[in-house]
């Protein structure tokens, strides 16, 4: 009604007067919506004076100060506005900005804004000022021409003030009244300052640098983190990047009670954990338990704890944990009662990636109980074989599948399943960015180099700038068939390279005598009734794969294993003659070929405890198959026994490398110490038998080859079973980095299994030789981290890898076939786990082959992190923090109006847009990437009408990242207009996801049937319990598959009564700490108009 009255007044004057009328407007607030209501008339008037000002704050009753002089401020600038006026003006400015930001991002809103700016800039009589000497409470629309009239009252020059609010305004047309109002206006106008209102709205369309828009997106995501990022003094003298990591870890612990510290090898994860331990022990007076491999317990953790006044903190090995968890808290146990610990730190936590091992069960038992514990997991390689590794590590502290419902992940298991399904042959953790950013601290060398330039660290008491050596990968070729021509083809045939039989049962009955049937290890295949035991089939597949790997490793390792199998087969045949079948047992962690479980399995396969009667077996066929295998195994053993350290071409290649290393050290070294450090070598192998073989070979060679004389009496062997001498070997090899610096330097060569691949600081050396093919490249990453660390005295380190050059493809093809058969065997029964405590370890051979090929080409990408996925938002957080240190960059990025956009060119890309939005006052930003067709229409999913919209944060940020911080904006009119269509699609998608989360039914996690049945059983038969309903609620929640499995077994136990089952469920819930997640509160309903575009980036393909 107000707008109608003003328009009527102005329109009437226009038709009556020769000259357009002049207009004066006083208002506190203004927005384009208000202008649009009067635009048709305003564009036709004469002179327009628009006066803005701040309204006074609400009056508050105050006690009058009796001593007025006591409140006087000394030295105050009398011309400056009073503090309350200054605050009001600041609030007024914010309000104008907010009105501008809420205009919206549509073609219609854009047109309204442009019309306003054109009026402000181009109309010859328009002038805007702001009254800043005091408050401006009056609102008036005054026609100056002939003092025609004035409309005054409560209406601001806004859409709401002119059309929607319940306002009171009066029109006056008496000349003397109008003259008085005009005098008042002229006085305020004369005291007011010019105000560029047009610039306020033009700011959205300025050619913003894409880098500044990208930083604004990052600030929406991580700005709150930076505001809370306050570090206290480090107790352990951490570097800046380590202190930042501790802050992040602490914040995650507070939120999730668990954190995964996954910094790359060599960045000092021990110090991050040490700082958290120090806080727990000294600030909170809590008890902490550290679990680590025995090598790290003795060589790393115990010295570290002593050095930092933490000697009272308990540290046990995984083996000690398993051995003592049952009697924890007793006098003879190495462990206190689990409820005494408030924090548990697990080093090399990837050792827990299989959740069906004894050590995994022991850790779960430790974490359970009535006292909640913080869990700190340290590992540089959280993904070894499949994404399940990562899921299992998270599940130790996020036991409930709905743990992350509060961040839009209602089911952790489903989230991982979707990620795995994206690339079944090439899994990557980058698809898990959203959940990993909630639980992980992950920084790389590149990250530290880029964002912490000049950061310093204390090394051996001296301050040094952080630096890392450059990694050089070198290939060592050898010929598999050089000594025993044709043997690999024979082995490939024997392992089933050319057969299709045996997929489901593990037994191959084609070509007896040429192909190993593995019947001795799968006797159930020969039962007259019933199916073959699946775990036996998996054992057979594992043995085939293990034979291949041991053959590639060394003749010694292969001969040892074949010899054990020959003895086992002979004993099996003797047992058959006595009417017994030796059945064996399941491998504890099948698929983990590098463990010594294979050897233990072969030793235990002939145990008299694992026998059954021959009744029910087809003994004739079983005997025939085992006899054929025995003969074939004896042939292989006889052939490889001709190979020894004197004629082995692979050993010869190793000795040549050692001679080269010794010569280069002499040529390049400066002084005796530097020469010695430059010739230090770690020789790694997967297998103990190969380690023994190489130890003999090297020690013999250095006595007869003068080129190796510098190594005489300076070689040491370290294997898994040699715990007593391991510490002396480590400090004797690298006293400057693994010891205190005072120990004697005894060794220049260590021959080791992977017992030394984790956690020890051996950067005094600069060479590693990998004697076996890198079947699991993550093992090489762990090994490489022993020498490529902060504090290395070398500018370069060398990673040498052996390759059977002529036969590499054949070896890899055979392993791929064997792994595929293992997967098919598991799939044939429709599950991955066939026995309690026996879990499958899936290996992605496609990805492994690609990494092996890169190593073969002497590329160091595996160790330089250039090919690694970021596991968290650390890169983006630090990027943002560093950029905002520059005041101009900070002011520009954070001062961007809502709706601001920019763009850049990207070669080979489809056109597309990334949008960052806010919903009402909700603190979470929403990112969407909308890819476009080349004709700038929105892409649609094939066979569907739904537009393609990508909502995961990492993909959106990856698309939005400009080519560089100096990239010029590229945004033509076609792309600008297409942005409106893309935003409408993104806005609809955001609204749909928001509305799904307003329904409590959508937020309730899907409870598996086993848990629902258990809860119902407790409600029906648990009246004897003190907290019956509480237990029912605890069980009625989604838990990990392992827990569901245990619950199903309990429910299916036919030997228990219902009451006994309830009692068992109660004990299980208590011992495993089953706790349902807190109920996720549904979001309040929202409308499309509540979704506001903060900023956007357009990706234009290069022409």
Give a topology summary.
Blueprint (H helix, E strand, L loop, with lengths): L1 H15 L6 E5 L4 H11 L5 E6 L29 H19 L5 H16 L3 E6 L7 E5 L5 E5 L5 H6 L4 E4 L2 H17 L1 E2 L2 H6 L7 H19 L11 H17 L1 E4 L7 H15 L3 E6 L1 H14 L6 E4 H7 L16 E6 L11 H10 L6 E5 L8 H9 L16 H11 L10 H7 E2 L3 H7 L4 E4 L2 E4 L4 E9 L8 H8 L39 H20 L1 H23 L2 E3 L14 H8 L6 E3 L5 H22 L8 H20 L3 H8 L1 E4 L3 H17 L10 E4 L7 H8 L1 H4 L10 E4 L14 E4 L6 H8 L11 E9 L3 H20 L17 H12 L4 H4 L9 H10 L3 H8 L5 E7 L5 E8 L6 E6 L21 H8 L12 H24 L3 H4 L5 H13 L6 H8 L5 H12 L5 H14 L19 E11 L2
What do you see in this structure?
The chain has 1103 residues and is of the alpha/beta class. It folds into 6 domains: 2-58 and 81-205, Endonuclease Chain A (Endonuclease, Chain A), CATH 3.30.870.10; 210-220 and 873-1001 and 1088-1101, no CATH class; 249-444, Rossmann fold; 470-478 and 646-811 and 831-864, 3-Layer(aba) Sandwich (Rossmann fold), CATH 3.40.50.300; 487-642, no CATH class; 1006-1071, no CATH class. Helix content is 44%, strand content 13%. The chain is built from 40 helices and 27 strands. It has a 7-stranded mixed β-sheet with strand order 6-5-4-1-2-3-7, with helices on both faces. A 6-stranded parallel β-sheet has the order 10-9-11-12-8-13. Strands 16-23-22-19-21-20 form a 6-stranded parallel β-sheet, with helices on both faces. β9 (287-292), α11 (294-307) and β10 (314-317) form a beta-alpha-beta unit. α20 crosses α25. The longest helix is centred in the last third of the chain and has 24 residues, at 973-996.
């Amino acid at each position: 009604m107000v707008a109608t009255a003003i328009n009527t007044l102005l329109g009437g004057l226009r038709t009556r007067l020769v000259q357009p009328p002049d207009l004066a407007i006083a208002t506190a607030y203004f927005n384009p919506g208000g202008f649009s209501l009067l635009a048709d008339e305003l564009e036709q008037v004469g002179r327009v004076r628009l006066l803005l000002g701040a309204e006074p704050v609400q009056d508050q009753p105050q006690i009058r100060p009796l001593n007025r002089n006591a409140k006087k401020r000394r030295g105050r600038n009398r011309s400056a506005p009073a503090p309350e006026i200054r605050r009001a003006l600041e609030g007024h400015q914010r309000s104008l900005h907010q009105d501008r930001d809420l205009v919206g991002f549509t073609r219609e809103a854009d047109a309204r804004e442009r019309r306003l700016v054109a009026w402000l800039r181009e109309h010859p009589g328009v002038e805007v000022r702001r009254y800043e000497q005091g408050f401006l409470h009056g609102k008036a629309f005054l026609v100056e021409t002939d003092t025609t009239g004035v409309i005054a009252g409560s209406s601001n020059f806004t859409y709401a003030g002119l059309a929607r609010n319940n306002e009171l305004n009066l029109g006056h047309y008496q000349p003397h009244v109008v003259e008085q109002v005009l005098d008042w206006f002229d006085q305020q106008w004369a005291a007011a300052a010019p105000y560029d209102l047009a610039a306020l709205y033009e700011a959205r369309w300025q050619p913003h640098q894409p880098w500044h828009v990208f930083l604004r997106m990052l600030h929406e995501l991580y700005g709150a983190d930076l505001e809370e990022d306050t570090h206290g003094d480090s107790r352990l003298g951490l570097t800046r990047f380590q202190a930042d990591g501790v802050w992040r870890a602490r914040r995650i612990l507070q939120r999730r009670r668990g954190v995964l510290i996954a910094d790359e090898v060599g960045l000092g994860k021990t110090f991050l954990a040490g700082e958290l331990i120090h806080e727990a022990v000294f600030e909170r007076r809590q008890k902490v338990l550290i679990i680590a491999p025995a090598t790290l317990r003795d060589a790393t953790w115990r010295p570290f704890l002593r050095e930092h006044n933490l000697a009272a903190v308990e540290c046990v090995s995984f083996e000690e944990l398993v051995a003592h968890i049952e009697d924890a808290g007793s006098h003879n146990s190495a462990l206190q009662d689990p409820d005494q610990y408030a924090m548990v730190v697990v080093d090399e936590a990837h050792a827990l990636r299989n959740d069906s091992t004894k050590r995994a069960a022991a850790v779960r038992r430790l974490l359970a109980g009535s006292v909640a514990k913080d869990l700190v997991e340290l590992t540089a390689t959280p993904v070894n074989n499949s994404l399940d590794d990562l899921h299992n590590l998270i599940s130790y502290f996020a036991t409930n599948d709905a743990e992350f419902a509060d961040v839009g992940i209602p089911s952790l298991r489903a989230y991982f399943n979707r990620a795995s399904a994206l690339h079944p042959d090439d899994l990557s953790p980058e698809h898990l960015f959203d959940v990993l950013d909630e639980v992980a601290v992950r920084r790389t060398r590149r990250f530290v180099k880029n964002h912490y330039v000049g950061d310093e660290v204390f090394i051996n008491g001296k301050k040094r700038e952080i630096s890392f050596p450059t990694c050089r990968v070198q290939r060592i070729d050898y010929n598999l068939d050089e000594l025993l021509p044709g043997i690999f083809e024979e082995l490939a045939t024997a392992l089933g390279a050319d057969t299709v039989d045996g997929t489901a049962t593990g037994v191959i009955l084609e070509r007896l005598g040429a192909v190993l049937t593995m019947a001795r290890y799968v006797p159930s295949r020969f039962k007259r009734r019933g199916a073959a035991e699946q775990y036996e089939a998996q054992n057979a597949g594992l043995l085939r794969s293990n034979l291949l790997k041991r053959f590639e490793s060394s003749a010694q390792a292969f001969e040892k294993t074949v010899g054990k199998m020959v003895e086992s087969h002979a004993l099996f045949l003797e047992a058959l003659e006595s009417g017994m079948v030796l059945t064996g047992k399941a491998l504890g962690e099948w698929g983990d070929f590098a463990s010594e479980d294979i050897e233990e399995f072969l030793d235990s396969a002939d145990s008299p405890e694992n026998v059954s009667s021959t009744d029910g077996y087809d003994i004739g066929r079983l005997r025939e198959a085992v006899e054929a295998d025995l003969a074939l195994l004896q042939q292989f053993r006889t052939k490889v026994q001709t190979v020894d350290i004197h004629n082995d071409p692979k050993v010869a290649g190793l000795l040549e490398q050692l001679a080269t290393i010794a010569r280069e050290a002499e040529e390049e070294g400066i002084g005796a110490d530097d020469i010695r450090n430059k010739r230090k070598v770690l020789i790694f192998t997967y297998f103990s038998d190969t380690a023994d073989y190489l130890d003999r070979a090297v020690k013999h060679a250095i006595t007869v080859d003068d080129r190796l004389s510098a190594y005489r009496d300076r070689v040491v062997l370290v294997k898994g079973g040699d715990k007593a001498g391991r510490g002396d070997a480590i400090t004797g090899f690298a006293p400057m980095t693994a010891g205190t610096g005072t120990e004697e330097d005894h060794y220049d060569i260590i021959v080791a299994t992977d017992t030394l691949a984790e956690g020890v600081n051996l950067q005094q050396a600069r060479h590693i030789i990998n004697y076996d093919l890198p079947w699991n490249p993550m093992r090489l990453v762990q090994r490489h981290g022993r020498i490529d660390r902060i504090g290395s005295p070398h500018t370069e380190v060398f990673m040498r890898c052996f390759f059977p050059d002529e036969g590499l493809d054949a070896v890899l093809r055979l392993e791929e076939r064997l792994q595929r058969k293992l997967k098919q065997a598991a799939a044939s029964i429709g599950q991955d786990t066939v026995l309690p405590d026996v879990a499958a370890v899936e290996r992605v051979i496609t990805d492994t082959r690609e990494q092996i090929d890169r190593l073969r080409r002497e590329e160091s990408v595996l160790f330089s992190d250039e090919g690694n996925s970021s596991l968290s938002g650390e890169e983006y957080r630090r990027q943002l923090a560093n950029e905002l240190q520059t005041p101009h960059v900070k002011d520009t990025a954070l001062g961007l109006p809502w709706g601001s956009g920019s763009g850049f060119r990207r070669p080979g890309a489809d056109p597309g847009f990334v949008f960052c939005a806010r919903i009402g006052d909700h603190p979470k930003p929403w990112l969407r990437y909308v890819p476009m067709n080349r004709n700038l229409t929105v892409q649609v999913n094939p066979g569907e009408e739904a537009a393609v919209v990508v909502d995961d944060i990492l993909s959106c940020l990856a698309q939005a990242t400009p080519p560089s911080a100096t990239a010029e904006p590229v945004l033509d009119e076609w792309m600008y207009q297409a942005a409106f269509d893309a935003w409408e699609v993104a806005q609809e998608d955001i609204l749909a996801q928001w509305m799904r989360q307003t329904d409590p039914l959508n937020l309730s996690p899907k409870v598996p049937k086993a848990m629902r049945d258990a809860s119902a059983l407790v409600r029906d038969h648990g009246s004897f319990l003190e907290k019956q309903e509480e237990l029912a609620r605890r069980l009625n929640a989604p838990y990990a598959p392992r827990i569901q499995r245990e619950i199903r077994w309990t429910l299916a136990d036919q030997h228990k009564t219902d009451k006994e089952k309830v009692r068992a469920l109660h004990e299980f819930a208590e011992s495993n700490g089953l706790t349902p997640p807190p109920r996720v509160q549904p979001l309040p309903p929202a409308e499309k108009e509540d979704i506001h575009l903060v900023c956007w980036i357009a990706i234009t393909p290069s022409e």
